[in-house]
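Minutes, project check-in
Item: structure for the 67-residue chain
Input as provided by the requester:
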Amino acid sequence: MTINAQVHTISCYSAHADQNGLVKFITGMRKKPSHIKIVYGDNNAKTTMVNKYKEVLGNEVKIEISK
């Protein structure tokens, strides 16, 4: 029996760091993520993070808020 499979590594990080720590983490990555999904926090905090990421990353990364 032939098994066709691939292994993918998905890296993620906790939102328990402060805003500056999260921005430093993302901007310090050698290969920037193509997609950031913000899944935890109140709407104000999540919107603030989206705006901060867009400020430092521009439009090169898709950023979305999970409901």
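Outcome recorded: DSSP finds two helices and two strands in the chain.
No further action items on this chain.
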